[in-house]
Each structure stands twice: as C-alpha cells, then as structure tokens.
Design brief:
Helix content: 40-55%
CATH architecture of the largest domain: 3-Layer(aba) Sandwich
Strand content: 15-25%
Number of strands: 17
Number of domains: 3
Radius of gyration: 29 Å
CATH class of the largest domain: Alpha Beta
CATH superfamily of the largest domain: Glycogen Phosphorylase B
CATH topology of the largest domain: Rossmann fold
Oligomer: single chain
Distance between the termini: 30 Å
Shape: elongated
C-alpha cells in the first residue's frame, strides 16, 4: 500500500512530531509499505529528496506556549493537486491535520483514505475554538482518527467530536540500551539530567531553583542541561547571579549523544508545567534505565506510573522537586528498581509494537469503509461496475471542487485556508462572497465596455432594447443594451445586463452547494 505521511512541521528539524514521523516511516517501510513524507522546506532545502516531498516554506511562530510552524506558498493548490495526481496515494496519514496551511489543503484535495493523528494538548485554544466552525468540512473528510494519549484525545474531542483510537508514541529501545555512558562525567559525582527546549512550559527555571535548594542542603551533584530556546539567556543569568556550581549547559545534542547522556545520568528530571500530551523524553529515560522525577500532569500519567518508574511531583513546586531528587540520590536500591521497571515498561512502547498498531488501524478503517460502500473511487480493489445514483453522488463528493479559472480557484482556496484560525467563515458564506465579487466584476466590465476576449468571441456590441428585456431604462426607444459578457461558468453563454449576471451567479452558487451537500 502506498502511504503518505503529512507533517505540517519542517522535516527533519528536531521536534516530537517530526521524530514520530521519522520512526513511523522507517517501520512502515520494514513492513512492506511504499511510504513518502510530505512536509515543507526551511531555508535552502531541496523540493524533493529521496522519499521526502516538500511543498511551500515553513515559518516559525509561537503557539501553545511553544514554537510551531506555519507553511506558506503562492501556488499551494496547483502544487498539491499535481503532487497527488503524480503519486496516487492509497492512504494519507496526517499529523495535526488542522495546522495551517499545508495539511488542510492536502486534506481538502485528497481522494485517498484519510487518517489523522493528533498530538497536541492544552487548555482553551482560540485557534481551535474559532477554527472548529470553519473546518467542519475538512474534519468530515477524515476516515480515521488517532490520539497519542488520553489527554490529547480529551483535548481534540472538545472541538472536533468523533471516534478516536489511542495509539501512543514510541521509542527506539535498542538505541538507548546499547548506548555507552560518557566517561567524562563518571567521576563519582551524582549526575542530574534535563533535555528539552528552553521555554516556560518545560520548567527549566523551576529545575534550577530546585538545584539551588539541593546545593544549599549540601547535596553534591551535577546538573547537565541539553537543549536551546528563548529562555537560554535567562537561565544562564540565573546560574551566574546565584553562583551555582556544577551546572553544565551542553547546547543542542545529537540523538547518539542524548542516549549517552541518559545512560550517564543517575536521575532524569522533567519539571514541565503543562501543555504536554505525551512524554517522549520519559520513554527515552526509561529505555536507558534511568530513574525519573516528573511533574504530575495529565500528559505524563499515562507513561510513568507513580512510584514504579519514577516519582511524580506537583508542577511549579521547586521544593517538591528538590525533595524527590534528594530521595532518589540517597536510596540506591529504589533508584535501581525504578531503572529496571522503566526498561521493562519501555518495551511496551517500542516502535515495532506501535507501528503494528497503526498498521492494524489502517486495515480497520479500510474494511469499515468497504463495508459501508464508501471507499474512494481510486482505491485499489474498488468495484468498477456501472455506478448507481448513490455511487455517482459519492463520486461527486470525492471529486475536486469545480473551478472557474486556475487563478480564481487557487485564490479562493488560499483565502479560505487563511481565514479559519482567525474567524469562522463557513463554505456557503465564502461562496456567497465569491459570487458577489464575480457579479461586481461583470458589472464593471459591462459599464466600461471592455473589449477583452473574455467578453465573448465577437467582442462588445450594442443591441436595441425590446419590451421583453429584463433591463429597461427610462427611454427604451433610444437606449442600447450594454456590451454582452460571457460567463466562464456557463460555458461561454452571453449574459446581458446586471440582473442576469447576479441571477446566474447566485444560480451557480446554489447549484454548487447542492453538489457538495
């Protein structure tokens, strides 16, 4: 089966979603599938590179207390349509399908089986609150929905209710088990480890405050900090002004170095304040056999079991964090027991098992569509018998939206995709705005007497007005009819006057709405 993994975030830049896409791609290939990764480009990256297809440019922007990506391109619709016609995917797997603008446009033009995975978790989200009203059509095109955790399922179900399957993230267990500790830090001093983006929700400043408490109590330990982010300068300033000793800022590290640091650490700390749907770093620590101190938040409860693989403490509580770390450093047996339990627990989240669950869900979605007779017409094995009225209606739903000209179609798609995070514009309202614009354009062409070729093969002409004309000036004997305008939506049929143009545009509007219904 040919599968396309759609990532709204720039691949392969670091991030939880891109890491998920990477391992899912590798393990689906091992299971015999033909897989492509659809993403955006960042900087001077190639448009296509092996099995990676890039469309548009990705730009970073703050979202949900972190940094997200928005993808832009002046030729989104034509590029996506050409790519889908060329690749002929059997199934498209979207990761965060409503992140603008790449995923919504691909989803709207897709003629494949569509499955989505939702990774995000948070509190009230204005973008989802308003976007849920304008993206109902795109949400209806999803045939299967996956959430990485119960917290992520609860969050997305508030805005897009539906049937969600919980399939967790995975971890490369073997990579962490075969990693070797770094001899540089093996000098008898206990090592504490933190890795993540330096941003408020990761809780780095709370960890530094807890480390200061430990140092004041006489605990000899070292804090290894890996990562980068907007709070980097503030964190270094805190260490310098408090004269904290033993804090090592390592910057960005590779996957191999990260695995070695996990094996070097005696305790891994994740003091996140919230907004986490799943703790991938907790899985990595457990795979390396490292004891954990983590915040007691919704996204972490499904990964670390209290008192078994680690200790859970209230978020934003430096004293509680310091007390939990001190307890693990004093009790070697407890720390070793938690490390062994973590290795056993990590086996349940190996990418081989997670990919098998995702592959099985693909089959379930396809069988469910086949039982309902709702498989896309282009899907392999779909019957090619003479279609019934219901089948023709379904085919019209799967077909791309009719368009007047290439320029107007692309602009309409881009405007609709751009408006959803800010205001809720439903498809009928947007179609009505387009119809009003078309009527105004024809009205101006009629008044100016344009001789453009779009006005008809014979160009502008005048005709005497008869009593049957719907457009009647005050002096019908001397008045002349305005130039004839041909409508591209009516196959070149002349439209005379303002009333006819408005009537025909509204007729087309209702006709297109009936076809999409």
């Amino acid at each position: 089966m040919k599968i396309g993994l759609v990532s709204p975030y720039v691949y392969p830049l670091p991030g939880g979603v891109t890491q998920h896409v990477r391992y899912l791609y590798e393990n689906l290939r091992l299971r015999g599938h033909d897989v492509r990764i659809l993403s955006s480009s960042h900087g001077l990256q190639r448009a296509s590179e092996g099995d990676i297809i890039r469309i548009g440019k990705g730009f970073s922007m703050p979202v949900n207390g972190s940094v997200g990506t928005i993808t832009l391109s002046p030729r989104f619709v034509s590029q996506v349509r050409a790519m889908l016609e060329r690749e002929q995917f059997d199934l498209l797997h979207f990761h965060e399908p409503f992140v603008p603008f790449l995923s919504p446009i691909i989803l709207r033009l897709s003629t494949s089986v569509n499955v989505a995975t939702f990774h995000a978790y948070g509190g009230f989200s204005p973008s989802y609150e308003f976007g849920s009203k304008g993206m109902k059509g795109e949400a209806a095109r999803l045939h299967g929905r996956i959430a990485v955790s119960g917290a992520a399922k609860h969050f997305i179900d508030r805005y897009f209710p539906g049937d969600y399957k919980v399939i967790p993230n995975g971890v490369d267990v073997h990579a962490f088990q075969r990693a070797v500790p770094l001899a540089r830090w093996q000098d008898g001093t206990s090592n504490l480890f933190f890795v993540g983006r330096f941003e408020p929700r990761k809780g780095l400043l709370e960890l530094l405050k807890a480390y200061r408490i430990l140092r004041k109590t006489g605990c000899e330990c070292r804090l290894l900090v890996a990562g980068a982010g907007p709070l980097g300068k503030e964190a270094r300033r805190y260490v310098a002004t408090r004269r904290l000793k033993g804090v090592e800022f390592l910057g960005r590290v590779s996957d191999e170095e990260k695995a070695q640091l996990f094996r070097t650490a005696d305790v891994y700390i994740s003091p996140a304040t919230g907004g986490e749907s799943f703790g991938i770093v907790l899985l990595e620590a457990m795979a390396a056999g490292t004891a954990i101190v983590a915040s007691d938040i919704h996204g972490y409860k499904g990964v670390v079991r209290r008192g078994r693989e680690g200790l859970l403490v209230p978020p934003n509580e430096p004293k509680a964090i310091a007390a939990a770390i001190a307890r693990l450093l004093r009790d070697d047996e407890l720390r070793s027991a938690m490390g062994a339990a973590g290795r056993e627990r990590a086996e349940e989240f190996s990418w081989e098992r997670v990919t098998a669950k995702v592959d099985a869900y693909y089959g379930f979605v396809i069988r469910r569509l086949a039982a309902r007779g709702e498989l896309p017409p282009a899907f392999p094995g779909t019957p090619r018998a003479w279609p019934t009225l219901a089948a023709r209606t379904r085919a019209r739903r799967w077909a791309p939206r009719p368009r007047q000209t290439r320029r107007r179609s692309e602009s309409t798609e881009l405007v609709r995709a751009a408006l959803w995070p800010v205001v809720a514009v439903s498809p009928p309202e947007l179609s009505f705005m387009t119809a009003r614009w078309n009527a105004a354009s024809w009205r101006l062409m009629t008044a100016w007497g344009s001789d453009d070729r779009k006005c008809g093969a014979e160009g502008p002409r005048t005709q005497p007005v008869t009593d049957r004309s719907p457009w009647r000036p005050r002096d019908a004997r001397t008045a002349v009819r305005p130039p004839a305008v041909t409508s591209p939506r009516r196959g070149g049929v002349p439209i005379h006057g303002i009333c006819d143009s408005s009537r025909r545009s509204m007729h087309d509007l209702h006709e297109n709405q009936d076809l999409r219904a």
